[in-house]
Design brief:
alpha+beta
Length: about 500
Amino acid sequence: MLLGDMASSPSLLSAGLSCIVIAAVLYLILPRSQKEALFRYTPFLYRGRRSSSSKTPPRSLSPVKKEGSGPTSTNYKDAFPPSRREALPTASKGLSTARKAALVGRPVSEGEFRKNLIPFEADYRVCGPSTFTPMEISVAEVKALGDFPDYAELSGVPLPEPYNEFVIEKALPRPYRPFRWAYHQTMALTKLETDWWLELESTYRSRIAQREELFEKYGKLVLDYLPGTELACKEIMEIALQFICARYSQYFSLIKDAEKGYVLHNRLLETETVIKRMHPLHVLLHNVPEDFAIMIRNPEDGLYYFRAGLLCSALGWNVSTKLGMVLKDIHKPIPDYKEKMEFSMDRYFSKMPSARPIQRASWGLEVDTPLFMPPNDPHEEYRLKQAPELTLPRCHLRVDWQTLRRLPLSGSIIFNFKALFTPVQEFRDEKHIPALIEKVLSQGKRKIMEYKNTWHVEHVVRPALRRWAREQGDVDGEGREVWEPRTLDESPWFEGWKEKWHRQQGF
C-alpha cells in the first residue's frame, strides 16, 4: 500500500499493481507524445535524466510485481522525474522584467545539474542560486517565481472550473463505491479529475474544527515536518489555496495586501489567514479539510522519504510513528512487500511526471465514524469483537478518496486523502451494490479480507446486504445469484448515482 492505506492501517501501506500493469496504466492515460518518450528506451520505463534545454481497512496505492518475481536492485540515484524547465517562460507571464529574465534562462547541462542538487535536509532559501531541485529548477528560478506562481503552467495540471452552483450547506461528497469483483489488492488507478481534487461538503466547518482540536490535543502526532521540506510545504499549500479559490470563489479569495502580503479570506469561517505568519501546513490545517503526506527525494540514493505530514484521518498510527522513513521501511509490516512490491514502488515514484496526477479510492467498514485513532485508542475495542448489541445504523462505509501528484518545483510527491463516511443503509436503493459487497465480504481472498478487518461488523451488515440483494432481484429466495457480481461499469460509483446525489443535495 502507499500512504493511502496508511490512512487506516497500522502498517500504513498495502499492495498494488504489477510493473506491467503500471506500464499499461501509464500507456492508457498519457498523451501520445509522452507515451513515445516513456516507452522509447526500455520496456521498464527506467532511464536517467536527459540533457535539458531550457491501520484500518487497507488504503493501498502501491505498484506490485508479478507473483513469483523477486526484487531487482536499481540505482535510483541517477533516476530523476521529468523536468519542467520548459514551463518557466510561460509561467513568467505577468512578472517584472527582472524576474522574467531570471526565468528565461540558459540551458542547463546534465553535469551542472547533478553536481549542484539541493542537499536532502537543506532549506532552499539559504542555498546558492545555482543549486537545483530534482525538477532541474534552480533556486534562483524558484525565488524569481515568487509566491503563488502559475502552478497550472508549471505543473501541466489545469485549475478547476468554477463551481458556481455549489451550496456548502447542502453539499454531499460524491457517493464513492469503490467495490470490485474479482477482488484483488491493486492500485485501481485512474487519471485525476482535476475539478474534484479537493472536494468540500456540508461538514466543512465541523470538520475543520475537529481537525484543529486534534492538533491541539495530539500536536506532532498529526502535524510535523523535518528539515528540507520548506519548499514542498510552501508549494502544496499554495497549490491547494489556488485550487479552492478557483473552484469555490464564492467562499474563498486570495488577496495581496501591501503590508501583510498574501491573505486568504475564508467566508465560510469568517477568517483571514495571513500566509507569511504561519507554517504552510498550519495554513492548510485551518482551511483545507484534507490530509497531506509529503515524500521527498534523497539525492544520496534517489529514494523517497516521508518528511512532512498533516494527517488527521489515520487509524491505528500517526505521523510520529512513520516520519523520516524511506518508502520500503514504511512498508515493512506488509506481507511480501520486499519480494513483490519494493522494486516497482520505488521505480514508480522515481519517474512519475507532474502533469499526470492520479486518483483512487479504498474502503472499509466501521462502527460509527472514527476519523483519527492513535494506538491504544478505546475505539480499537470495537475491532476485536462482534458486539451483539451493535445495530445497523451504527455501521458505516469509510472511503478514503486518495490522490497522488508530483510538485513541479520541488519534485516532491504528495499523497493526499479525505475520509468519507456513508451509513451502510444507503446501499439499499443502490443498484447491485448490496450483492457486490456481499460477494467481496463472503468470497474475497482470505488474507486480504483479514487485513481489511471488516469482521467486527459483518454479523450485522451481511444479513442486511443479503436482504437488500433479494429485494433488488440480484439473488433469489434460495440465496442463489441471479445477477453475477462484477465490477460495475460506473465504478467507483453505481448506476443512477448522479440522480441520487443531486436529489439528496437539492442542487
